[in-house]
Amino acid sequence: MIIDTHVHVFDRGVAGADQNFPLWPGTRWGAGGPDLIRQMDEAGIGKAFLISYTPVDVMAHYSPDQRDHKVAVFQHYLRKDYFIQVWEQHPDRLFWFADSIDPRVPGYVERAAQDLDRGATGLKLLPLFVDTEMGDPRWRPVFELLRERRRPCIIDLSWWYADFPWFSPSVYGKYASFTDYVQGLRQLISDFPDVKVQLAHYGTPRLRDRDDPARALRYDRLQEPVELLRAHPNLCFDLAAYQHLIGRDEPYPYWSALKVLEVLAGGVGAGRIHWGTDWPYLGVQPYPELIRAVREAPFLKPGEAEQVLGLNALKFLE
Questions:
Q1: With a threshold of 0.85, does the pTM exceed it?
Q2: Which residues, at least 6 apart from 15, have a Cβ–Cβ distance to it below 8 Å?
């Protein structure tokens, strides 16, 4: 069983999609539910974690000069009701993780509960997108809900965006390091050790410097997220977006991306890593090539590739 633990979909059936989709990154591989299911079938992927969000959920990472236009355009294509429609059409293939959780807006816990009542497997939290880091006490009722319902969550810590002054103003310039930034999260997950948490995008360290993209990748920055996981057994990583490190002409097995898996497996063990991609943002390589590279990774012991590609995710859902 291969599981992609981080995917999204866009409604390509809305009028104007051909003209508007080029404005959105990553649609080279398609973006709709049928595109996802077809590519999963072709690659032998059995299931996926479908994470729902809207333009409002992710608008904080649009630069201010683009924000109004992007939200206006993609409100038609990136819709929670479309995510739910795709999930309901493929309940045997997709686990739905619901987003749209903003603790600044009253009723956020009740709305999260409604999604769980509707059948969501768990919740997706984007703390910095709503300018409330995980140490904010308003996240605690969400964890109480997760503990009560015995459901997992996915957290995108978004540290790699935190140096934008307009992204999350309350965090900008406040923390000198990732380790400083996650102190509030440490306390939260220590208080809720029975809530399973998948950290999206291997914890979100910035491995490529924005001001010098040609500089060698900084794999040493994975060590802080590794130390976080070592201290908290209810945490795990997904690899989503790791494949964006692959250069356009980079040869197989794409060591720039595979090195992330090697460092994480060496640091916390293969049993705490979930393969995921952030589809449709696959980058330059399709599903089958990414899967083959993991299967043939020389640093993984027998059986560990199967753990990373799916068995760990199944255990996460137990």
A1: yes
A2: none
